[in-house]
Amino acid sequence: MRRLVFVTLSGMLLIGNALSAASGPSYAFTAIEIPGTMPGSGSGVLAINGAGQTVGLLNLNDGTPTHGFLLSDGRLTQLDVPGSVTTIAYGINDSGDIVGSYGTSFQRRQIAFLLSGGSFTTMEPPGSTESVAQGINNVGQVVGWFRDGETTHGFLFSQGRFVTIDVPGSTFTQVFGINDAGQMVGTFSTEPNSSGGPGFLLSGGVFTTLDAPGASDFTRAQSINNAGEIVGTFADANHADHAFVLSAGVFTTIDPPSSVFSEAFGINDRGQIVGIWSDNDVGEGSFLASPAALVSDLLTVDSVETRFFAPSDNPFSQDPAGAFEIVGRLRNGSAHDICNPFIEVVELSGGNRLIGALALSADGEGVQAQNLPSRPPLVFASGATIPFQFIIGLQTRQQFTFLVDISGAPPAAGGRCQ
């Protein structure tokens, strides 16, 4: 998010720049529709790669058991390990390699698999009675968990061999995600017969415990991208599940609007997050959370002009001290298009009021002339400029501060704005 700080005094305008003071990133939420399914079917998206391809579990409500799936550019591919009764796809890397688990009967025992180059390969750690592959990085390393009787361990499969992963002192460890640097995330417990506890990050051979603020029952770290951003789920004191992202040391809850529960399962290198949620009305469904485009110093004020209207010649309002007009152009100096740019006035001091705001499209036609939030053009192209106009009703002729937040979303897979 970019913040423009306007400090004005009777027609004089100073412009400075400051970063938003928000405690964490902000997101735009989009429902993911899985073709052939209805909300509440139990289907769900569990992972996303850099191209925006997603995988998960598919319930068609046609009497058939659970299938895995790949969703790519709106096309659904059903995934079933040969000879299996159930298949679930848990992870996908940027090469399109997919990992998950399958069952050969309706019993609970699962067997890990890797799907690469169109071929399924079974993955069973030595001595395991059950195994699930949860994540795969771009190097081809696979992580997951297995049971060797009553104990659950994490595993890393790298260069043809299995390595057992156990948090020191734990009775239960599951590994869910791995990035290209080999950093791993998951969950563990030190209590006998327990499958819930804090999350962890394993980096450079060092385990770090992860507890989301407000977590009561558990914190589960599900996925980590190459920027070190971690997503997962925690349960609060009321046993309600919430999705979270841990970025730059800050936990941020990312519940979709009106949700009663949410879980985050995957994050790609563009910062896009996938998971499941429910609002109790529509039923359970999947979501995509796209971060606001952090354009920082690459979004600049290209030009700006101001005009003061005295009360006697104010065409906009009857405010006692007149009106102040700010017009200018914003330039996108980044190398990427910004989708659905959003302009919001977050502070207007001195008791003054915003009369109107106008964001202009590239051809100069106004698209919104009322109070914010405005509706700027769909695509703010790299290198382009957008004209803007703000009109402020003045209550006094004193200096005042006018803060504007400008944000947007990154393009979807294929570079398209949606």
What do these coordinates show?
There is one protein chain. With 418 residues, the protein is an all-beta fold. It folds into two domains: 2-22 and 295-415, Immunoglobulin-like (Sandwich); 27-291, TolB, C-terminal domain (Neuraminidase, 6 Propeller). The protein has strands spanning 2-9, 12-19, 27-32, 44-48, 54-58, 67-72, 75-79, 86-92, 98-103, 111-116, 119-123, 130-136, 142-147, 152-158, 161-165, 172-178, 184-189, 199-203, 206-210, 219-224, 230-235, 241-247, 250-253, 261-267, 273-278, 285-291, 299-309, 323-332, 338-348, 353-360, 366-368, 379-380, 385-393, 400-409. The protein is elongated, with a radius of gyration of 25 Å. A five-stranded antiparallel sheet has the order 2-1-34-29-32, with no helix packed on it. Strands 27-28-33-30-31 form a five-stranded antiparallel sheet, with no helix packed on it. The protein is built from no helices and 34 strands. A hairpin with a 5-residue loop joins β21 and β22 (241-247).
